[in-house]
Structure formats: C-alpha cells, structure tokens
Amino acid sequence: MTIARLPFALLPLLAACSASPGNDNSNDTPALVAQTALLPLVIHTAKGPRHFSVEVARTEAEQEQGLMFRKTLDADGGMLFPMAPPRTASFWMKNTIIPLDIIFVHTDGTIAFIGANAVPYSREPVSAGVPVAAVLELRGGRTAELGIETGDQLAWGTCAAADGKSAVDLNFCPAPAR
Predict the structure, then answer these.
(1) How far apart are CA 35 and CA 103, in angstroms?
(2) pTM for this structure?
(3) Which of 19, 61, 68, 71 makes an SS bond possible with 95, Cβ 3.0 to 4.6 Å?
(4) Band of the pLDDT at 177, cuts 50, 70, 90?
(5) How far apart are CA 82 and CA 94, in angstroms?
(6) Cα dihedral sign for 145, 86, 6, 35?
(7) Closest alpha carbon to 55 in 77, 34, 79, 32
(8) Whether 86 contacts 132, CB under 8 Å
(9) Is 171 left (phi over 0), alpha (psi -120 to 50) or beta?
(10) Cβ atoms 39, 54 nearer than 8 A
C-alpha cells in the first residue's frame, strides 16, 4: 500500500531530525538527514519578514525520522517537509522530545494552519485537513513570539535568501499576496 492511499489520520509523518554537527541525537537512532547545507526560508508577516535557516526532509525515511530525539532546536532553525504532489498531511510527536510549532503551507505559499506548541511524545495527529505543498516545523512557541499567523506567506530557496543564492536546490517562490 502506498502512502497516498492511507487516510491522513494514519499518515504519521513524524517531526524531523538531522545529523548536523552539534546536534545530540540518540545513540540508538540512526541520523537519517545527513546534509550540510541549510535552506533559507522567509515568512512574510504583518510585522515584517521573519528569516530562518532550515533543514529539509525530502525522502520518506527523512520525513519519518523528523525531529525525533532532538533535544534542542535553534530559534531560527527548523525543518521543512516538501509535499510533492500536494497532499493532506498528518504529523504526530511520537519520540519528539521538544514542543514544536507545526505550520501547514497551502500551494500558494500561505499558511493554512498552525499547530502551535505540539505536545512532546503525543500520538494525537496534527493536520490542516487540506492538501498542502509543505509543512514547516519550528521550535514550540516561535510562531507566537514572532507574530506568525494563518494567511502569512512563505518562500524558500533563492527567493528567500538576501543574496538570491541558496546551497540547497529547492526553491518555492510564490507570487506576493495581494
């Protein structure tokens, strides 16, 4: 059975984890996201742009591993889960130690739903209930701290970098909201 055939409540794409230097991963858990480059990402809010450097979980294995067992997450760090093709995604916090804000992104780049401060270790699914182009995880409480709200718009890759360059070959440059 393929993932696309499972109902979203049974599609537990877990919070993501990386093998970046300085991260303290559990010794029993293999580091599945082994990348050196971070993806520039910007969220355009009513209070101005908010810039992040995030890891990317592209493969099914990376998305299943997520941020599990991670003990810390930088204030302007996070993990992006691209959804190609767009689909209804459901995340849970099994084996995730820290609270996370889980942001679901419409295909036009706007925020569809924010699952704020998802509870560590919870098996309760968090979902926007609609197909999304991506899901972004940030440190728990960060969306409230920065005034990030439903309807704000995201961009990543070259269109989010101040110098127009990105070491990661993943770009999402939606037209500015009107």
Answers:
(1) 22
(2) 0.80
(3) 68
(4) low
(5) 20
(6) negative
(7) 79
(8) yes
(9) beta
(10) yes
- What pLDDT was estimated at residue 21? 32
Nearest to 66 by CA among 82, 81, 83: 81
Q: Which of 6, 5, 36, 10 is nearest to 23 (CA)?
A: 36
- The first and second tokens of residue 117, run together, are 């401060």
Rounded Cα gap, residues 88 and 131, in angstroms:
4
pLDDT band, very low/low/confident/very high, at 149 (cuts 50, 70, 90):
very high
* 22 burial type by CB count under 10 A (0-12 exposed, 13-18 middle, 19+ buried): exposed
Dist. CA 105–CA 3, nearest whole Å:
19
d(CA 121, CA 129): 21
Query: How is residue 3 annotated by DSSP?
Result: G
How do beta strands 39-45 and 153-156 pair? antiparallel
pLDDT, tens only, 2-44? 333 233 333 333 333 333 333 333 333 334 444 458 999 999 9
> Which amino acid appears at position 103 of this protein?
I
Of 53, 54, 52, 50, the residue nearest 16 (C-alpha): 54
Q: Which amino acid is at 117?
A: N
